[in-house]
Amino acid sequence: DDGDFDSTSLRGVIRYEAATDWAPFASLQVTDYDYLRAAHTGTAYNGVRRDNIVIRALGGVGFAYHTVFIGNAALGQEWRKYDDNSVSDITAASVEGSIKWLPRRGTSLSFDFLRRSDEDNSINNGAVLTGAELRLEHQLQRDLYLKTGVEWENAKFEVTDREDDTYSGNLGLYYVLNPRFQLEGSY
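and the corresponding structure tokens:
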């Protein structure tokens, strides 16, 4: 459908590094999506214009506990405004969080959570995405690591009753060639 677009994003973060292992922060992100063509209607590119602007405001805290637990958590609001009035704007709570547990040297277990707006280019509709991912990295030998994970994502569409759940998993190895390059293979 030739849904090419240009996006320009600017994000500002104010963070206070406290003497403790807690660092409160606030962030504001503005992203402008400019689609090069309107949606294809079967005969020409004369359908919906999906140009939109997203404003995302978050407040949260970063933390580190003796380099055993490292992460951040943030709550906020997101607004997605479309130029074309035939596409519904989206206002949604926005959440992101991440925690990494380092139980021993060479092993890490990570959990990420995210909730944000998105759009579905095939049906010209906005959606609220909620997702979670659990990852494990383990050093097998010097410079050779095992990486595996599972992920769940839910897309709830704004104008229809459609709701999609996606589940995925991966398993891979990567080899650190030097501090700047690594070779990775995964399924």
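(Above: one complete record from the training split.) Strands lie at 5-15, 22-35, 52-65, 69-82, 90-104, 107-120, 125-141, 144-157, 163-178, 181-186.
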